[in-house]
Automatic annotation (TrEMBL):
Name used for this protein in its record: Trk system potassium uptake protein TrkA
Organism: Paenibacillus forsythiae
PANTHER family listed in its UniProt record: KTR SYSTEM POTASSIUM UPTAKE PROTEIN C, POTASSIUM CHANNEL PROTEIN 2-RELATED-RELATED
Occurrences of domain RCK N-terminal (ranges): 3-119
Domain RCK C-terminal per the UniProt entry, residue ranges: 139-220
Superkingdom field: Bacteria
InterPro entries: NAD(P)-bd_dom_sf, RCK_C, RCK_C_sf, RCK_N, Trk_Ktr_HKT_K-transport
Gene3D superfamilies according to UniProt: NAD(P)-binding Rossmann-like Domain, Regulator of K+ conductance, C-terminal domain
Leader sequence residues: none
Length: 226
């Protein structure tokens, strides 16, 4: 199967980091930036890296952007260029268009243009850090919607050796443990007979209320009493 192909427009810190991560995962990445210096830094690290004006339709057609699987607008210093680039990617027929927003107004404009996914890197990182600060065992946090989320929690000492039947998150709290990560091995869809041990990572999905209740009552409170 052919690897997915991405074009990333804007090779600042966010765009460059995203491009290098995708390359590391085995995907093909075309990087575009108006800065020759930024492009030179990534020339040997990406599939292709070119200096170009991403708002020029002729240039973008010549680069074959329309044939790629996903276009990511990572321009963070010019809202107008970001919007014009997103419009062009949609008009060229790129299958999926993702864009970084630098403000809520910018994000709303991108959504109205039909961008498939709008991301707020700084805001999203702030949300993650805030949750990690108030929940000691929280490793990561993904908001699925306003009502539901997925979290990664480190198993505390108070749960060491317990089976999932004993913890019984679904019946007691209304959330589910959908995976366990132990020493580099992942158990997907664990059964009630599986056990958790201190330091394991458990992945939960559920409503915000149910997971918050589990964190407060089963993790933080039991650990405080231990």
């Amino acid at each position: 199967m052919k690897a997915q192909q991405f074009v990333i427009i804007g090779l600042g810190r966010f765009g460059a980091s995203l491009a290098l991560e995708l390359m590391g995962m085995g995907y093909e990445v075309l990087g575009i930036d108006h800065s020759e210096e930024r492009v030179e830094e990534l020339t040997d690290k990406l599939t292709h890296a070119v200096v170009a004006d991403a708002t020029d339709e002729g240039v973008m057609r010549s680069l074959g952007v329309r044939n790629l699987d996903c276009g990511i607008v990572a321009i963070g210093d010019n809202m107008e260029r970001s919007i014009l680039t997103a419009i062009l990617l949609k008009e060229l027929g790129v299958k999926m268009v993702v864009a970084k927003a630098i403000s809520l107004l910018h994000g709303r404009a991108l959504e109205k243009l039909g961008v498939d996914r709008v991301i707020f890197p700084e805001r999203d990182m702030g949300v993650r850090v805030a949750h990690q600060l108030v929940t000691p065992y929280l490793l990561d946090y993904i908001e699925l919607s306003k009502e539901y989320k997925i979290v990664e929690l480190t198993v505390p000492a108070c749960m060491n050796g317990k089976s999932l039947a004993e913890i019984n998150t679904r019946a007691k709290y209304g959330c589910s443990i959908i995976a366990l990560n132990r020493g580099g091995g992942v158990i997907v869809a664990p059964t009630s007979h599986d056990h958790v041990y201190e330091g394991d990572i458990m992945v939960l999905i559920g409503s915000n209320e149910s997971i918050d209740q589990f964190e407060e009552e089963a993790v933080n409170r039991e650990e405080a009493d231990a």
